[in-house]
Structures are given as C-alpha cells and as structure tokens.
Give the backbone structure.
Amino acid sequence: MSFETLGLTPEICTAVNELGYTKATPVQKKVIPLVLDGKDIMATAQTGTGKTAAYALPILQLLSKKEIKEKTIRVIRSLVLVPTRELAAQVGKSIEAYGKNYNLKSCAVYGGVKFTPQTKKLERGIDILVATPGRLLEHIKQDNVDLSHVEIVVFDESDRILDMGFWEEIVTLSNMLPKKRQTLLFSVEHNKSLKRFSELTVIKPVKIDINNQGDLAKKVRQTIYVCDENKKSALLSYMIGSRNWHQVLVFTKTKKSADEVGAYLEDSGLKTLILHGDKAHSKRTKALKDFKAGTIRVLVATDIASRGLDIEELPHVINYELPGDAEDYIHRIGRTGRAGNEGEAISLVCKEEKSVLKDIERLLKYGLKVEFFEGFEPKDWVEKEARKHTLRGKIERSQEKRSKTANNVAGMRKKKANDRNAQKKATLRKRKKK
Ligand code: AMP
C-alpha cells in the first residue's frame, strides 16, 4: 500500500519516497489513518517495523494544518517520550527527515550531553519535542519547557520506559499535560505493568497488535550454539573470523562482560568498539557512527545501550549471553532483519542459561534450532541436548521409542501366553483330579 492511499499529503509522501520508502509497513498501514482521525491508540510493535514513521508522519501532517508563521512564537504541540538517549536521537533525526517539506521545528533532548545547547534550541521555539523522561523534567524545572499546549503525545517503547524505572516521572509528566489531547502508546510487548500505564495515559484507545513472532522468525534466521562457558569468547571470535563477517553486533548481559568480550575480540585482531551506559555519550555516538559506517567490524553492546540502534541491513546479531529477560531476546534479534531485510541471530548458550532459553522458546511459542560447534561444545550437555534437538537425536529417540513399544508388546504377548499356559495347566490338573 502506498503512502498516498493512507491519506498523507504530497509533502510527506515526497519526503518518505526520497528516503526510499515505497510501501507502507503493516504498522504504518494500521496506525497512520487512525492517528489522522484523531484516535488514541495502544499499539504493540517491535522496533524495526517502521513504527517511528507510523506515528511521526500523521503527527507532522496534523500539526502542519496549523503551521506557525515565522516570527510568531512556537509552542510545543507534540511530545514524544522515549526511554533512551539513543532512541531519542534516532527519533529526532527521523522526524526532521520526514518533516523536511514543512515549516515545523523539532528537537530531541536527552541526558549525557550538555544542557545549554538544548536550552538554546528550546528557546528558539519548537513544535515537536522528543525527550527522555529525566532530561525533560530537568528542562521543565528550569522553565525551558511548557507542556500546556501539547496536543499529541507519544509514549514510545513505553514498556521499556517502565522497565527503566521511570514510573514516577511518567505520573509527574502526565499531570502536566493537558487533559484534552491525543495519546499514542507504543510498546514492544504487552505486559501487565503496561495496564497501569494505559490507564494513566490513554482514553478508549484503539488496540493494535503488530507483533508477529512468525514474521520475525521468517525474517531472522535464529540458531542456538550450545557451548562451554569458558570457550564462548574463543568461539565468538572464531565464528566472526572464519565466516568473514564484517558487521556484527554482539550483545552481553553486563557492562563488565561487554568490556571483557570487547578486549578479547580486539586482541584477536577484530576491530571492535564497546557500547554501554558507562561510556560517555560522545564515545557512544562515535562507536555507533563508526559501526554504521563499517569502519569497525564488531560492536559489543549491553541491552540498554542498544535501544534505538538502527542500522540498515545489519546482517548479524550474536547473543554472547542470553538476556535476563526473555522479551529482550526479541528486542535484540529485531536489530537485524529490519524493514524487510533478512538477518541472522546467533546465541551462544551455556549450561547455566538453559532455563532462560526455555523462557525464550515459551515466549516465541516455538523451539529454536540448536547446533554445536566442534571443539567448543560442553561434553555433558552435548549428548543429552543433541538427542533432544538434532534430527539425528530425534530419529534415535523415535527408534528407541518404537523398539521400547515393540518390547512392551512382545512382553505383553509373552505374559498373555504364559497366563494362558498356566490356565490350561490348571484346568488339566482339575480334570485329572476329577
Ligand atoms: P523503526 O521501526 O521506526 O525503528 O524503523 C526501522 C527502519 O525501517 C528504519 O531504518 C526506517 O528508516 C525504516 N523504514 C520505516 N518505514 C519504512 C518503509 N515504509 N519502507 C522502508 N523502510 C522503512
């Protein structure tokens, strides 16, 4: 479906066409007409599905109807709240690109960077503000931001906003927003805590669920490599090197682990950078820029640092460790296979991570393909798991099952024959006595 048929103006359609978007994605098809129609919505969609454009395009169009003439004072008419700095920067850039044919101003404010340049931008006047909760409240305290004219609010990745402990901030902010407004609530997953978020923010929302794990699986080839915990780093560098991969995003569970894995890969001769919350924002931005440009081969990142990571045609994601939360697995593998491209997600799983793997499979509602890399496998698990997951194992198990059944049947027949014989003998004995 083209963007024109969704009711978008030529200004918007030209801007997206120039970005190479020819067809609307499923989330865009559903969300754009509803937003243009003034509805509150509650949508579940993974990153990578085109959800930013799904809300940004109609917002730009709605705000453009009342474009501000130069020299009149601009007020913030739309607020997009996001969980992380990276996502704020990414969304800010997308909005600028989508709205390039309109006289609308936008700006992204987030922590980890200097306050004053943001203040100056805000003072010049903007129509759309993209912000992380903490930095937004700081600007409000300094009287740099007034939310009383906001007409449309977006809570993007609201489940992540909650996961990151921003509930208090959300309550404070929602009390500052005008009651009469349009609200768009996006989340990666539906979870229980989202209920209270929606109760606080949206009114009779239209519910949309774009998540389709089947689709994700079709786009992203997922493989689990069961390996010995102590051999993970060696396997990782061997895999990247031997398969000649040139743009690989590696996820670790902790910052410490990211540092260690990054150092190991660098020592192995693979150009690597590390992205986690303890790195200065300038370093994080540079790491991302270099990785996107292809000047470094591997980016090792933690979950939080990777939010908002949008790299076109990123071919490989490797989970060095599985995430603590099964939902993060989906978020991680969604970094590849974006906007219709194919991707590959590999997870290195050791014995201790078995239960997380089960949780992930439960969430996905299907089992994942398990493989072994010769020389890196944990011996005791190999035999057991290989039998469970590999084709050979399945055949062996079914043969065993069949022979067990056959043995049982034979055993039962023998027992029946013995019973019959015993019965015959007993009858004969009785007859003789008579
Ligand atoms: P998002 O889910 O908003 O993070 O978008 C994921 C990626 O898809 C971004 O690189 C977008 O530029 C791209 N994208 C969004 N909509 C489309 C579309 N209709 N056609 C092609 N690419 C798109």
Q: What stands out?
A: The CA atoms of residues 7 and 245 lie 42 Å apart. Residues 4-210 form a domain with the Rossmann fold fold (CATH 3.40.50.300). The pocket of adenosine monophosphate is lined by residues 21, 23-25, 28, 47-53, 310, 312, 338-339 (CB under 6 Å). The longest helix spans residues 391-433.
